[in-house]
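Margin note: ligand = alpha-D-glucopyranose.
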Amino acid sequence: MKVLFVASEAYPFIKTGGLGDVAYALPKALRKMGIDARVIIPKYSTIPLSFKNCMENLASFTVPVGWRNQYCGLKYLTYEDMPYYFVDNEYYFERPEIYGCYDDGERYSYFSKAVLESIKHMGDFVPDIIHCNDWHSGILPALLKDSYSDDEMYSEIKSVFTIHNLKYQGVFPKEILDELLNLDEGYFSDDALKFYDAISFMKGGIVFADAVTTVSETYAGEIQTPFYGEGLDGLLRSKSEKLYGIVNGIDYELYNPKVDKKIFYNFDSDSIKQKVKNKLKLQNQLSFTVNENIPLVGIVTRLVKQKGLDLIVAKLQELLSLPIQIVLLGNGDGYYEDIFQYYASIYPSRISTNIVFDEVLAQKIYAASDIFLMPSLFEPCGIGQLIALKYGSIPIVRETGGLKDTIIPYNKYTGTGNGFSFENYSSDELMDTITSALNLYNDKDSWNKLVKNAMISNNSWENSAKNYMDLYSNLTD
Ligand code: GLC
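Resulting structure:
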């Protein structure tokens, strides 16, 4: 089985969010199961030079984009035994930012076409499956069915499309059909790419891929309802027979407190007592009172509405009157950045606001904190809560998407569960749940039991990779 995994970002080359983690870890897990999985991403100028210097030139050719032919250099590199391909075109990818350009519609139209053309230059690697991810490669399944189906090389290739976040859809003016994609007017219809007066790349993936997946079972159900459906719930209901929810895992070679070099002191589920040393050291670094009995609450997130920050903001004043400390890390909307910075300026010994994307500090927070807050409005899967579990920081989450599927509420009678959760998007429910967690924190035996449960929860990629493998097999049988 050969799988070409198409993504707009992949760790360790370029990563802005969870998709970058998945594009590293899932293909790796598939390879371990004997699948010849390979990854292809754009060659952004911001990929570190140390990688760029090691890339090999495989081929150069042109890619038709509307009436023009654009250059494509196909580069290749193996990293940790994984073959990676890079689509090189300086006009599109030699920029300081990777997303949010005025011509993203053109850049990712080009990328999808370039991926399809690249297959002619991969030697004997002709994929059985092209696995596309999010809107950036959503148009590819449509192009594969339209422009390549008569070509023998492509006629047997099946496509899988994974939705990591339905909110970001890649919606562009309808002129793009003719001017960039070389697709005829017929595609501007409800059962093809039309989304109101425009063209949706996300719809391209949903309509034209042979199977559609999303990153948790709960989210797969949620997106078929108007609240979570982002205007596509009707379409998703009509495609429910080919829609699957497969929860993400995390890579325990990357995220393991026993060997993680980014944290102050290593520990595991048999040496939970060592964890507290991380807290004392971080308290000191943040100029908080150094005291192992003060619960430390961590928030590591992009600062966007999706993450449920409005609930936290609504209760922040109240939270800061409790005997706790809060450390926040992340950047995003200025609105949230300002609020958290304001509180940190008033209560510097209670809340530390760190407006950066800093993977080292992130790990230190997971290792040091007692509680991890993630009350998302919606969460396709979520990775923060999975890392928190492994590092013994107890997640408090809202029961949505992957948060619901991975966090089992603590049951004080049976001692089972690995976190705390609440149902409604309500700041009162969040506050009640935090209060319950803080009460349990004072009962050290029960708390330590909970920490142990959290740390031994298994969210490795193995099970999920097996589900993807079954899906690929069903498509190619
Ligand atoms: C997106 C989602 C997040 C998910 C990630 C990887 O970033 O918002 O919930 O974990 O993709 O699938």
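The two ends are 11 Å apart (CA to CA).
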